[in-house]
């Protein structure tokens, strides 16, 4: 098992003929992901360079291929529309890679698409190693195994995964939830799935300064996840308050969103917090050993 | 993008929120002429983005043209600083505004709540003070309502909040309408925050927005082309200016006091790289995210930015390729060193991920050997400063 994505997931790509969409479709296919087609309005009936059918609408693509997942690579002004179209076509899971989607667009979308899971926007996607990869993650650093990983950052995820893989700790599913203020899937959503996933024996949670998602996650772990070991890491501990460093969401304002508040919340939930990514594998191994 | 008070109030006026009468003035002469033409009691207010202007002497009273000229001259000479902006922001313009007979001060705002994924409307009877202080000292005093975006704003929300926050009865009739206007502009202009602090109740029973704080979503500016024009009137701080010149987003570069330069791809890894330098016992000179898909040219401009504008004695380049291709970054590093006229500082390079082998080969051909891990790289870069 894994969460959200497995070997049999049928996936379409919205924006498949754009530069990013086309390049990453190739990489996803190379990883063994079952991409069954793509959508670019006005280019329906063509075939992509990868030999995939292009459709004019998501509905046509879903009807023809039976896809239930979509990966969205459209420019920011069209992301909300792409998500609504996916919802209308009955897509179950939409992964929105697009960076720079207006936050009000996302407020509207999340309020209006009950029942469809959205991952992102501004995220690297997700991967169930050995099975499938949706998005832009570099597949070769991942290895199939029992660690579930959730992260707000892209490149920091790769860093942590690389360390886990080198330490012999493979992964069940890694979800890049995205760095924006309003995202479709939060830490808690992923934790709920990992809690019920038999393949996932332990969880790594890579948080970041700003917001209170980590505090919410800590509260959830304390109440609902007593059996599965969890290790956390908080990026940006040395960031100054009041200034946004890169990610729109990564800003400390007042007492909210500080690394201290997040670390304290995890410690109160019995979750060890790594000072640096390189400590994560050892902390995880120790927690797994203690369990046995 | 944060708006100046006078710009925020322009949006307030369009949304039907009562604001004191007044004029935006670029010079002391303009201020004096305005007061000469409009006799009365006026407040001269520095137009800056930095907080704490009142304490810094940026708000003064004037009742005659001469007073207005004198106060305006004083304020226009100020450079207003606070903890978050130690270099300070020079005052470039003023808002001359009617002095209100204040009976009460309250607070109201609309922001985006990440947890509920809804707009949150907030009201407190503690106006005129820093809301984060209020949140700390009287958390129960801030009444909140999380708006269902399918319904939007409805007047009952304002009534509910006025009662829940225990506002003076004088506010009750007018608050629902003011919040309606505030929600309207929050939504229409794609704001991340709209705040009225203080929301003044005058001794003759009128309610006015005495200040205006509006933060627009940079990603939504394209929807309202006029904001692109406004944006050009707003001051960038020194770091933001340098970032723009190097072809980076304004949030992708920030300077600090240390001597270890850092460059990484992705904000998370860039912050992680700063943390790694600190963990290795060093102090970072900057935050720099070269962005996804960085090419050789970008790497070179970032190298020069760090070498020329920070106190870096060594530079740790930490790249984990996803979208970014390691060979492009390697090319940029080699090119930067070959072509730059800037001084050279010792580099430590960590390069892994997409096209890693190609990147390592390019570096090896130029006589450079990358390190394997982030911790190792941070330690080496710290060592090179000593």
Task: Describe the protein's architecture and organization.
The complex is a heterodimer of chains A (292) and B (386). Chain A has 292 residues and is of the alpha/beta class. Chain A has two domains: 122 residues, 3-Layer(aba) Sandwich (Rossmann fold), CATH 3.40.50.720; 155 residues, Succinyl-CoA synthetase domains (Rossmann fold, 3-Layer(aba) Sandwich), CATH 3.40.50.261. Helix content of chain A is 33%, strand content 20%. Chain A contains nine helices and 13 strands. In chain A, the strands form two sheets. A seven-stranded mixed β-sheet of chain A has the order 8-7-10-9-11-12-13, with helices on both faces. In chain A, strand 12, helix 8 and strand 13 form a beta-alpha-beta unit. About 3% of the residues of chain A have low confidence. Chain B is an alpha+beta fold and 386 residues long. Chain B has three domains: 154 residues, 2-Layer Sandwich (D-amino Acid Aminotransferase, Chain A, domain 1), CATH 3.30.470.20; 79 residues, 2-Layer Sandwich (Dna Ligase, domain 1), CATH 3.30.1490; 146 residues, Rossmann fold. In chain B, helix 2 packs antiparallel against helix 3 and helix 10 packs across helix 14. Classes of the chains: A alpha/beta (292), B alpha+beta (386). Chains A and B meet through helix 4 and helix 5 of A and helix 4 and helix 10 of B.
Notable characteristics:
A: 292 residues; alpha/beta; Rossmann fold; 2 domains; seven-stranded mixed β-sheet; globular; B: 386 residues; D-amino Acid Aminotransferase, Chain A, domain 1; Dna Ligase, domain 1; 17 strands; 38% helix
């Amino acid at each position: 098992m894994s969460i959200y994505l497995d070997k049999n997931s049928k996936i379409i790509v919205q924006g498949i003929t754009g530069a990013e969409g086309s390049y990453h479709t190739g990489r996803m296919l190379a990883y063994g992901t079952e991409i069954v087609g793509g959508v670019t309005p006005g280019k329906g009936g063509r075939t992509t360079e990868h030999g995939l059918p292009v459709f004019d609408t998501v509905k046509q693509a879903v009807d023809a291929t039976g896809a239930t997942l979509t990966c969205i690579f459209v420019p920011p002004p069209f992301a909300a529309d792409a998500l609504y179209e996916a919802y209308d076509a009955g897509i179950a899971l939409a992964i929105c890679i697009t960076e720079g989607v207006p936050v009000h667009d996302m407020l509207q979308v999340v309020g209006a698409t009950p029942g469809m899971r959205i991952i992102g926007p501004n995220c690297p996607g997700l991967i169930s190693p050995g099975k499938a990869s949706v998005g832009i993650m570099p597949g070769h650093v991942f290895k199939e195994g029992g660690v579930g990983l959730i992260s707000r950052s892209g490149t920091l995820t790769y860093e942590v995964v690389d360390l886990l893989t080198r330490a012999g700790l493979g992964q069940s599913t890694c979800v890049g939830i995205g760095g924006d203020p309003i995202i479709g899937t939060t830490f808690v959503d992923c934790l709920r799935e990992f809690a019920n996933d038999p393949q996932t024996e332990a969880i790594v949670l890579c948080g970041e300064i700003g917001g209170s998602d980590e505090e919410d996650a800590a509260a959830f772990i304390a109440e609902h996840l007593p059996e599965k070991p969890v290790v956390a890491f908080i990026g940006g501990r040395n960031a100054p308050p009041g200034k946004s460093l890169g990610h729109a969401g990564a800003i400390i304002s007042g007492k909210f969103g500080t690394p201290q508040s997040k670390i304290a919340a995890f410690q109160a939930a019995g979750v060890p917090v790594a000072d640096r990514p390189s400590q994560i594998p050892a902390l995880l191994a120790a927690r797994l050993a203690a369990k046995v | 993008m944060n708006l100046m008070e006078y710009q925020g109030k322009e949006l307030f006026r369009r949304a039907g929120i009562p604001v004191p009468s007044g004029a935006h003035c670029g010079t002391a002469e303009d201020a004096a002429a305005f007061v000469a033409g409009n006799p009365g009691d006026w407040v001269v207010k520095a137009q800056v983005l930095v907080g704490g202007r009142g304490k810094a002497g940026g708000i003064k009273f004037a009742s005659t043209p001469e007073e207005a000229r004198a106060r305006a001259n004083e304020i226009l000479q100020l450079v207003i600083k606070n903890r978050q902006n130690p270099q300070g922001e020079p005052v470039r313009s003023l808002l001359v505004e009617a002095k209100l007979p204040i009976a009460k001060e309250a607070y109201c705002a609309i922001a985006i709540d990440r947890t509920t994924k809804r707009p949150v409307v907030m009201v407190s009877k503690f106006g005129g003070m820093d809301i984060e202080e209020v949140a700390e000292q009287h958390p129960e005093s801030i009444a909140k309502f999380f708006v269902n975006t399918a319904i939007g704003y409805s007047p009952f929300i304002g009534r509910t909040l006025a009662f829940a926050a225990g506002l003076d009865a004088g506010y009750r009739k007018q608050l629902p309408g003011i919040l309606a206007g505030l929600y309207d502009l929050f939504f229409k202009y794609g704001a991340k925050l709209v705040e009225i602090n203080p929301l003044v109740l005058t001794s003759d029973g009128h309610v006015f927005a005495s200040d205006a704080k509006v933060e627009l979503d940079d990603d939504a500016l394209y929807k309202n082309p006029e904001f692109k024009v406004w944006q050009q009137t707003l001051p960038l701080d020194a770091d933001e200016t340098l970032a723009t010149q190097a072809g980076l987003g304004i949030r992708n570069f920030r300077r600090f006091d240390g001597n270890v330069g850092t460059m990484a791809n992705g904000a998370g890894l860039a912050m992680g790289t700063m943390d790694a330098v600190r963990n290795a016992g060093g102090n970072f000179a900057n935050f720099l995210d070269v962005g996804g898909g960085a090419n050789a040219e970008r790497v070179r401009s970032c190298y020069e930015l760090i070498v020329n504008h920070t106190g870096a004695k060594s530079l740790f380049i930490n790249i984990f390729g996803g979208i970014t291709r390691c060979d492009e970054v390697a090319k940029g590093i080699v090119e930067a060193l070959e072509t730059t006229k800037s001084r050279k500082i010792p580099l430590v390079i960590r390069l892994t991920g997409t096209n890693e082998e190609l990147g390592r080969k390019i570096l090896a051909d130029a006589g450079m050997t990358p390190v394997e891990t982030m911790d190792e790289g941070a330690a080496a870069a710290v060592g090179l400063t000593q």
